[in-house]
Amino acid sequence: MRGPHNIWRLIRTGATFERTGAMKVALDAVNAPARVRFAARVLGWPFAWLGYKGDPALPPVTRAITALGPAYVKFGQILSTRPDVVGVELANQLTMLQDRLPPFPTETAIATIESALGDPVDVLFCEFSDPVAAASIAQVHRARRADNGREVAVKVLRPGIEGAFRRDIDAFHFAASMIERLSPATRRLRPRDVISHFESVVTGELDLRLEAASASEFAENTAGDAGMEVPKPHWHLSARRVLSTDWAEGVPMGDVAALRAAGHDLPQLGANVLQLFLRHALRDGYFHADMHQGNLKVAADGDIIIYDFGIMGEIDEYTRRVYAEILMGFIQRDYERVARVHFEAGYVPRDRDMLEFARALRAVGEPIFGADASRISMANLLAYLFEVTERFGMATRTELILLQRTMVVVEGVARSLDPQINMWEVARPVVESYIRDSLGPRAAARDMMRIAQLMGRFAPLLPDFLDQRMPELLRAPPATRVEDTGRRGDLLRGMVAGAVIAVLAMALGLVLA
């Protein structure tokens, strides 16, 4: 599939980028080498007349991407989460990329629903509207369930979208391979890995059952959170190509004038958005990774409604603790602590100078703390932090990049509601609460209990393991036996230590229960 026939698609793409003026902007953003620039010009300039014109009111890159269709729009949205690849400036532009695609006919949506759910639409719904929103992959209809009258949002995949995406992704893979061949220097940006990441994300979004599962898990995690709502999926009205959820009634977060007219406390809303995101990322390790204004509404009672769970972020518990300690170190302006956390986590090679690294971190943090509230930016700090850590040999960590990118988006939403918001003061209680719960005595006791439980699960295997290994150690030649005796001693010491940990864990558990 990834053969020369894709050249035509690349020519059309290059022609559109050239015609809309996006070519130079995109190449400058990724600092493309001369060979790649030359190849792009060859594919674009002579054929510019073949390119799509796009909407002249849009910035060049978003104009080109929107004109090229759904796969390119979705690719642009996902690239907005990778400032390490496209640069911060272009990533910010892509964040604002809107799905400016025409809806498909309601009759087609109805046919898709009836095929997927096995019943006529008028049996499933007593009301069913024309499209109320059209995106790159699907469109949304407002409906009312026939059995109980509840209002729902019905999301339906675009017809033929799977085949269209497969063709375009095939061309993307071909282009990435060609770029790496033309210029080995571009391999530092890992273009093929970027396309593979895009493919995995889109594959998940093309099965709406997976989005329903994400919405369900997110709703369970946040069930006790005050000040927010999550539209829950209706499983019997959902399938691979159809997703039904509660209807989210509220004022769009992007309509500041309407929010103000409705009497909502805008500074409080801004603080709530930021704190909710941090709480989900730190406490749950599972967060909405596309929290722009288009996916947020405000209910009449002031609750923030979060919806559209196509892109989610996940962070393991250890990384969450490291991230929280880094944030707390900056909040307290304890740069040696931040440096030590980086070294202990293995983010920075141990052969680097920790104190020199701490001074570099001070150069990152102090200018931000010296600014007035309207210029204090956690997103900028994280961006500068990654620049410094890269200089000290830190490898790219995709999960932290997604976290940083989402922080940029959330911070933008918060500032649109309250330009004077002090990000550090708002974030501090959430970070402190997480550290208190995750790094204090109770957290240590929970960790030890988990170790005890793990040892308990494997304890039945230990007798058989020792029965098999001990005779081998005793029969081994003397030289080998000496080595194995040392290993056996390590094993026995480990078992003793494990037993001690288990006893301490149970004791602490009883004390703290």
TrEMBL record:
Domain of life: Bacteria
Stored CDD domains: UbiB
Domain ABC1 atypical kinase-like: 97-341
SUPFAM superfamilies assigned: Protein kinase-like (PK-like)
Listed pathway(s): Cofactor biosynthesis; ubiquinone biosynthesis [regulation]
Membrane-spanning segments: 491-512
Pfam families for this protein: ABC1
Record-linked InterPro entries: ABC1_dom, Kinase-like_dom_sf, UbiB, UbiB_bact, UbiB_kinase
Annotated keywords: ATP-binding, Cell inner membrane, Cell membrane, Kinase, Membrane, Nucleotide-binding, Transferase, Transmembrane, Transmembrane helix, Ubiquinone biosynthesis
Protein name: 2-polyprenylphenol 6-hydroxylase
Provenance organism: Paracoccus mangrovi
Lineage of origin: Bacteria, Pseudomonadati, Pseudomonadota, Alphaproteobacteria, Rhodobacterales
